[in-house]
Amino acid sequence: MAGTVGRWRALAEFTGTMLLYILVLVVSLKAMPAIPDGAARHAAALAPMLPCLLMVWVILRQFRRLDEYLRLKMMEDIVVAAAVTALVTFTYGFLETLGWPTLSMFAVWPVMGTAWALRSILRGLLEARELRRG
């Protein structure tokens, strides 16, 4: 699926899964205090991961719709983001040995997502500059 229609469809699919995730997350967080310890409480805590699995499927579907050049660009951005995330988390891990506060694993995705977004934006700006020159 090419062009604007494909992009809007992918955005709609992603937005739908994100809204479902938010709904399940809110319900899960509100329900958990009333659920006694045990399997049901664990299931409620993990329930938001079900829409996340759907989100992964949506992302993979969109990735497969891309042409080879766009896939390569995206993979390069993801590799750079993963490397930056490894560098930041390892660095912080060493600082934790000095008494810095322990960070939750929830901190890893925002680091990677930010690195991925910044890399993608920087690439876009550099490519736009090259197009204006040439």
Write the SSE topology.
Elements: H1 3-31, H2 39-46, H3 49-65, H4 68-96, H5 108-133
Helix pairs in contact: 1-3, 4-5
Can you walk me through this structure?
- By secondary structure, this protein is mainly α.
- It is 81% helix and 0% strand.
Defining key terms:
single chain; 134 residues; 2 domains; 5 helices; Membrane protein; membrane; transmembrane helix; transmembrane
Choose one word for the global shape: flat
- Termini distance? 29 Å
Our count of domains comes out at: 2
**Series of secondary-structure elements, N-terminal to C-terminal:** HHHHH
Can you count the beta strands? Answer: 0
Radius of gyration: 19 Å
Helix content: over 70%
Q: How much strand content do the residues show?
A: under 5%
Whole-number mean pLDDT: 93
Tell me about the largest β-sheet.
none
As residue ranges, the low-confidence spans are none
Task: Quickly give the structural class.
Answer: mainly alpha
Summed up, the helix count is 5
